[in-house]
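[INFO] parsing input record for 3-oxoacyl-reductase
[DEBUG] input buffer:
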Amino acid sequence: MSRRPPHVLITGGSRGIGLAIAQLFAKNAYRCTLIARSENTLKSAISTLQPLPTIPSTATQETEPEEEHGYSFLKLESPTQEADSNSLDQGSSTPDTSSAASHAAFQHSYIQGDVAKGTYFWGSQFGDRLPRPTKTTPHHLSRIDVLVNCAGVSQSTLFIKTREEDIDNIVNTNLSAMMIGTRFLFRHGYLQGASEPKQKGDKSSPVIINISSLLGLSGGHGAVAYAASKAGVLGFTRALASEYASHRVRVNAIVPGYVTSDMTKALNEEQLRQRIPLGRFGTPEEIAQAALFLAQNEYAHNCVVNLDGGLSAV
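[DEBUG] output buffer:
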């Protein structure tokens, strides 16, 4: 048999913080599925991930994994009946060892699409690429152990000059898409907690890690919509942590300060560094280390981890 590697799904995983998280998780033998809008950047991102070790399976595989876009995935039949929207566990529990799936299927993959499209993306594009688990369909490929909500867009415009469509785009991408996507994954069995409150079972539990921003705590000049959306991420994290704790689903958030990335290129780094007690921007890799800690520490729940070089203290 081949042991199923833990599966991490990362929105906004093709660059910046999301890519750094994927790279670190891949080094730690997680199977990564990345979501982003650009297929070219997704292909490039996948090529930087450390491949998973190939562990031969003794099981007979009737359906050969199909090669597409440079990675393997196993074709599963999509269910004709929609999963129970009120169920946290869409079937009997399945151990981490699988005789139904070949080791070749457990490789890094990507799904191209825009999470800001909400239900359309998750119900169509996502569901077509990662089939919904059911009681009769093995979920070795579809089950998600760690969800990292990292997709986001930034803004640098005075509020009075901000267009309504820009506000909609920022709030939809940074907050609404996060809530709609997470709800979809719960409803359709990708994220499986205990079906009954405080049910005993496997020690491992699904983990959700939401990426917020220091501006969500402190606000910022020229970033009203962005700050509001990131503050909403923290509210979403706290409330979800309370609602799903008894079902053994851990929910945490990371609050980065200024991090070297495409989103901060336009900022005056020299001027900002003078305000940061540690005197520098953070790196995506430092944010990734916090994400890995939150994923692996079984007692980490309802945590909000500030990584801002001390800026929130001044």
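[INFO] Residues 12 and 151 are 4 Å apart (CA to CA).
[INFO] shutting down worker
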